[in-house]
Amino acid sequence: MNRIERLAPRLEEPLLVTGLVNVRYLTGLESSNAAVLVDPAGAATLYTDFRYAEAARDVDGVEFHQTPRYVVTALAELLSGRRVGVEAAHLSLASADTLRTGGVELVSTTGLVEGLRAVKEPGELEALRRAGAISDRVYTELGEQPFVGRTEAELAWWLEQAWHEAGADGPSFGAIVAFGENGARPHAKLRDEPIPEGTLVVVDAGCSVDGYASDCTRTFFTGQPDGRLREIYDLCLQAQIDGLAAIRPGAIGRDVDAASRVAIEAAGMGDHYGHGLGHGVGLDVHEEPNLRPESSSVLEAGNVVTVEPGIYLSGDVGVRIEDMVVVTDDGCERLTAVTKDPVAVG
Ligand code: ZN
Ligand code: ZN
């Protein structure tokens, strides 16, 4: 069954898919201005403008309707008098107003296509595996690079080139390279200051392969890993291993998250691990399912998630260790497998 055929039985009324990644998932069309209307019986119409018309005509299993420049303006007329589901997360208020003014009755929905995307097909897993393998190669090479005296921005640029050289389409998101106190900010901005000896450097980066993202974090030591820095590194690694061990089909997101907090809380560091354990990865770097304290996601074989606990000591240093895994029938398999032993860089 194709993706549209799997979506249709989940629908109570026709669904107007306007999330561009969801449009891509359902039809293969990459466009900045497109929508697809799927009805519960499985018929689908793809709307886009002249710029994408040729690619849209090649999509199997859908009717193609070419619209003027703005798809939503055209849909307001085409769907006038009809009741359609819309994707609340992917329809702007301005677009909703345009549709309503045109006489379209909107029913808010969430997560319909995202629910399908959460369970990867073999072809998707293959792309994710390749992205993971490239990530492993690039992180191994990164560990052989000099860090001391170079800036976070320079290393981020090195990574950007390395992704291309290793055969990826490019980065899946802007790399985070953060030493010292910057590492205590989970989403740190790159700085132009030289990296010193004797600190920790958090590197969170990923590549894109056929549209599928990798996402991996390693924390490097400039100089020999010992003392206090080694202790917090080992604690974070224990939390990561505990999180990985809790992943299996049927596990609930919040329980997997909780498993990763036991060691950190026992060490009195619970307040320094302020984000969720992980997130789904696929066409988007962040997608379903989620591993967070409030997550009720139930894991299924074929989900791809990250496992990324962190310890952030404000004004001091941070550690994060992140792998991307696929949920298997009895646990999980890592898609990023580069070493998690502490790596000392020069
Ligand atoms: Zn990451
Ligand atoms: Zn992540």
What do you see in this structure?
The structure is a single chain. With 346 residues, the chain is an alpha+beta fold. It folds into 2 domains: 3-117, 3-Layer(aba) Sandwich (Creatine Amidinohydrolase, Chain A, domain 1); 122-334, Creatine Amidinohydrolase (Alpha-Beta Complex). It contains 11 helices and 20 strands. Helices cover 31% and strands 24% of the residues. Helix 9 (227-245) runs antiparallel to helix 10 (253-259). It binds zinc ion (2 copies). One zinc ion is lined by residues 204, 215, 217, 322.
Straight-line N-to-C gap: 53 Å
In total, the number of domains comes to 2
Shape: elongated
Beta fraction: 15-25%
Low-pLDDT sequence parts:
none
* Helix count from the secondary structure assignment: 11
Average pLDDT number: 97
Class from helix and strand fractions = alpha+beta
DSSP, total strands: 20
Bound molecules: zinc ion
How would you characterize the largest beta sheet? 6 strands, mixed
Kindly provide the radius of gyration, computed on alpha-carbon positions and rounded to a whole number of angstroms.
Answer: 22 Å
Short description:
The protein contains 11 helices and 20 strands.
Properties at a glance:
single chain, 346 residues, alpha+beta, Creatine Amidinohydrolase, Chain A, domain 1, Creatine Amidinohydrolase, 4-stranded mixed sheet, 11 helices, elongated, binds zinc ion
